[in-house]
Amino acid sequence: MTTPPVLLVTGAVRGNGAATARLAASRGYSVCLNYLRDHAAAEAQVRDIEACGGRAIALQADISSEAEVVALFKQLDATLGPITALVNNAATLETQMRLEALDAARISRIFAVNVLGTMLCAREAVKRMSTRHAGHGGAIVNISSGASKSGSPNEYVDYAASKGAIDTFTLGLAREVAEEGIRVNAVRPGFIYTEMHAKGGEPSRVDRVKSLVPMQRGGQPEEVANAILWLLSPEASFTTGAIIDVAGGR
Q1: What are the boundaries of each domain within the chain?
Q2: Cα–Cα distance, 142 to 97 (Å, whole number)
Q3: Rounded distance, CA 27 to CA 39, Å?
């Protein structure tokens, strides 16, 4: 019997992460849903996946903590087995404001999750996937943002800068491990209907800005998930170092 591929999705409780976990499970992945605080929501996701015939577990970890990332991957090893795919989805932002209102503590919080967390998770995945370390290869998809291109002025320049770092990291890591059986790509969502906008203080932000999108609408998490799953799949076997915009033409 063929062993199912093992996927870790960080920040998998809601939005793009939850949609990705559900879609991956429906396509035969054993899925680990990482979450920060909302244990009840994570377990509900696991039950939903299992009810549809999939396999999933939920593991708590703060990805901005190196020790917790290391522990997360060890737990994953012990439960589902060797990781074959990673989606670095977990990210944070804070209330909309201009640069002159930001303090160092906020900037550090944003970069600790969005950049440091992504790099730490990728590091642990590479240690397990790379043929250089006796692994069997794998695929990593980092979740960037259309903000990395727009700069998100007057709203989230810190968040936008962190996602610019993800774009650069994706290109560098892709070239670093290309001969070791690992593909590294990114998806850059645009204005997507997720709960993250409420965290920034404007739950209906997508409706306000959707007129800026050539397709004249916001996107759905399932549309982002479809792009992610393609990049993880054998259909993308010659694709690495790519950044796919899922942004309605913006």
Answers
A1: 6-246
A2: 26
A3: 24
Residue 73 structure tokens: 């991957």
What are the backbone dihedrals phi and psi of residue 245, each rounded to the nearest 5 degrees, phi first?
A: -85, 125
How does pLDDT run across 138-180, given as a tens digit for each residue? 999 999 999 999 999 999 999 999 999 999 999 999 999 999 9
156 as an active site residue: the answer is no
215-240: b or e for each residue (b if 16 or more CB lie within 10 Å)?
eeebbebebbbebbbebbeeebeebb
Which of these, 150, 59, 77, 163, lies nearest to 115 by C-alpha position?
Answer: 163
pTM score > 0.85 for this model?
Answer: yes
φ and ψ at residue 31, rounded to 5 degrees: -115, 130
- Distance separating alpha carbons of residues 121 and 106, to the nearest angstrom: 22
Burial class (CB in 10 A: 0-12, 13-18, 19+), 136: exposed
Q: Catalytic residue among 29, 35, 156, 159, which?
A: 159
Give whole-number Cα distances, 147 to 26, 52, 163, 223, in Å. 30, 35, 7, 18
Query: Using an 8 Å Cβ cutoff, are 142 and 120 in contact?
Result: no
CATH class, domain 6-246, is alpha beta
